[in-house]
Design brief:
The chain is mostly beta strands. It has a domain of 141 residues: TolB, C-terminal domain (Neuraminidase, 6 Propeller), CATH 2.120.10.30. The longest helix is centred in the first third of the chain and has 20 residues.
Length: 341
């Protein structure tokens, strides 16, 4: 028989866990293959569940976790501060640290896999790690192709005099790398100093796309064949990703969000709707056909860090209303939004 004290302890633990999950700052989230939400948060906590209250799971890291993804084989991967890379083989229940960079002050900001073997972890000060064996080993590299042409010309002059000085200056000059995504075997990356670049050789080299914007880009996503990038003060750019080729002038369209906020995340809700989350209580939507912005949802949180949705098949199979198909990660952990009608 379970004692009264044991029951009280179980109840208190459940209540405290739910309160902690609500008060945590969540920075990224996914809808996993186990039909549950997973979010990474501060203090090394992962939130998990199909609906509130979410379970708080502690990981080997006690530092902020910033990004999460899932490989086709079901493994879940997360990155965070101190260049730490974590993984779970049981849908986020238990976590193992597989890598920690030598420079503890550098946070990793995103993680992505092309397939079960090749993956990338990127972050501040040009941090770029790649694995070719499913995450068992991670190797750091530096990419001058991520720099503007003027910086590359300057580095070439230094390299002509000293390879050692060139490498030191390259490491110093590389911008923060904020997001990396793959579409049709092409990698795209965005970051500081107006960085938008792509790679057609699994990250060996990069081709920068120059835009008339020198602020930071925080996210990118795709709506059909169009690439959307977004960053500071409501700046959004649309580029025809399928037509981008090296050494060709790229035609793009500048769009300005009605609210001049820092944009943290973009989400293609459907073929004609782009959701825009940022430092605001308003979750915005863009009709990608007529390019009209309008409010989609009002939140109680001042900061929306990330946003994700159920896959269409999961939404249809869910016992819940389709209103549960979108969630936000932010100041209040994971909060429910809804879907377009």
């Amino acid at each position: 028989m379970v004692s009264v004290k044991s029951l009280l302890f179980i109840l208190l633990t459940s209540v405290l866990g739910a309160a902690q999950a609500k008060n945590l700052l969540a920075l990224d989230l996914i809808y996993s293959q186990s039909n549950e939400w997973l979010a990474v948060a501060d203090r090394g906590v992962v939130l998990k569940g199909d609906k509130p209250p979410f379970k708080s799971i502690h990981t080997p890291s006690d530092l902020m976790l910033t990004a999460i993804t899932q490989k086709p084989n079901g493994e879940v991967w997360a990155v965070g501060h101190a260049s730490r890379i974590l993984m779970s083989t049981d849908q986020g229940e238990q976590w193992h640290q597989v890598f920690a960079g030598e420079e503890s002050s550098i946070p990793l900001l995103d993680v992505e896999f092309i397939n079960n073997e090749i993956g990338f972890a990127i972050g501040a000060y040009g941090a770029f790690y790649r694995t070719k064996d499913g995450g068992n080993h991670w190797h750091k590299s530096y990419h001058p192709g991520l720099l503007p042409q003027a910086d590359k010309d300057y580095l070439a002059e230094i390299r002509a005099e000293s390879e050692q000085d060139y490498l030191a200056e390259l490491k110093f000059m590389l911008p923060h790398l904020n997001q990396i995504k793959v579409k049709d075997q092409r990698l795209y990356i965005v970051g500081e100093l107006g960085l938008v670049a792509y790679s057609d050789n699994s990250g060996d080299s990069w081709q920068r796309i120059e835009l008339d914007y020198q602020g930071s880009f925080y996210d990118l996503t795709f709506v059909g064949d169009d690439l959307y990038v977004a960053g500071m003060r409501g700046h959004i750019y649309r580029l025809p990703s399928a037509k981008i080729k090296a050494d060709e002038t790229v035609t793009y369209q500048a769009l300005n969000l009605p609210e001049p906020i820092n944009i943290n995340k973009l989400l293609a809700l459907d073929a004609n709707t782009l959701l825009i989350a940022g430092n605001s209580q308003t979750l915005w939507q863009l009709n990608t056909t007529n390019k009209v912005f309008s409010p989609f949802y009002q939140t109680s949180s001042q900061t929306q860090v990330s946003i994700a949705k159920m896959p269409n098949d999961a939404t249809q199979a869910s016992a819940e209303s389709s209103k549960a198909c979108v969630r936000i990660a932010g100041e209040n952990g994971m909060s429910e939004v809804g879907c377009a009608q």
